[in-house]
Protein 1
Amino acid sequence: MSEIKEYIVSDFDHPPKVMYLVKEILVSSDKINIISHTNSSTVATRAAESLVRFGYVTYENIQTKTEIKNDRRSIKLIITLKKTSNFDKLYKENEKERKEKQAEREKDEKKETKK
């Protein structure tokens, strides 16, 4: 589990989606790099901060990287997160709650289609 996984944030992602996918990756890894470009840096930052605030992870490193390709500048934000000792407990509790809500929504949808 020592390999650092990566998640590249798309311009079309939103914080809850990034949080969910990062947690899914962290189930099998201890660390993750969330990588974003200029347009998606806000989403990456909000997702990382929420995960830290909820106790899933801690910040290990935050850095920017500038590369020049074909005379154009490409700036990346790289946020390295490390999961906490409470991660597994929090993840299981959250998954249980998420599945219950999903089952409830599906039940409500079935009632609506019968009408």
Note: Residues 23 and 91 are 8 Å apart (CA to CA).
Protein 2
Amino acid sequence: MPSKNPLYESRQPVNTLRQLASDTPEYQQLMNYLMARSAVPEVNFNADGDNSGQFVQGERYIGGSSKHNAGTASLSGDYMGYKGNPNTAVRTLGHELTHAAWNQMRQQIYEGKTSPEFADAFSKLVYNKKKGTWAAPDLANKLDAPWYKENESYRSSVQEMPAFGIGNSMLGGDPSPSWKPPTHLDPTLATEQMILLDLATRDAKRNPNKTTR
């Protein structure tokens, strides 16, 4: 019986994964932004250990040169197996690319070359520098304080919540039962990230000083 996993049959599984993801609006928006920043990460199936995916950022980041490499998004090799789930692989790719995009948006803010619209949205939806507060943790704490506190070391951390929000929104995915968030958290964060990506993409296309791979 042939495998139902196109990644298992593919001679170029990364390209196949990108093709599968390309039908989702989340992937399209992420790639539009990362391409505008000349910061599309390398993608491979070499994630360490039991990790389903991981993103390793470039050597230089906030405060460094704008000319830094784009980083690497690695997925588990299990996704290429006979029983691998291609939809879960797409969601994991979206998760890791959100980390890449999130880092780039923070870099844009640091560079100080953003529109008032993007700067204002970033302040409201990500980090308010004047108050020193992060929006996602505040939202999670309001929706379910015990869940937020219990998962603060990873799932409800500042960096992970937006990535889970985007990843879990792709292809009608369901959150992992072991990390199931408050009902409205992931959809809200996914919507907010799409708004930020749209504004950040407009800024990146207007700004001639793009980053380089």
Note: Residues 61-67 have pLDDT under 50 and may be disordered.
Protein 3
Amino acid sequence: MAESTGIALAIGGITLANEAIFAPMAGQSVQINWRVIPATIGLALALSALENVAPEFAVGLAWLGLVTALFVRFGNAPTPIENASKVLGFGATQGSTK
């Protein structure tokens, strides 16, 4: 297995878990986007092919994708960081002046 494949699978797993588990825990009702699964497989295959040509670039691109999946909205739910902050009680309350 290529070095970037595990990172690509983590990206898909985080995105799917965010919509299926973390968003409902944070109080949002979202529909799960099942297209994440084939998109993750495609990403893993593409990064694996790219890793044959430029290994360091492919791994770096995979890490960049992982960080992006944590901080940018994909799919139907807020970002995993937003959901984690709401679940842990760090979300800003409405009407707060601070």
Note: The chain has a mean pLDDT of 87.
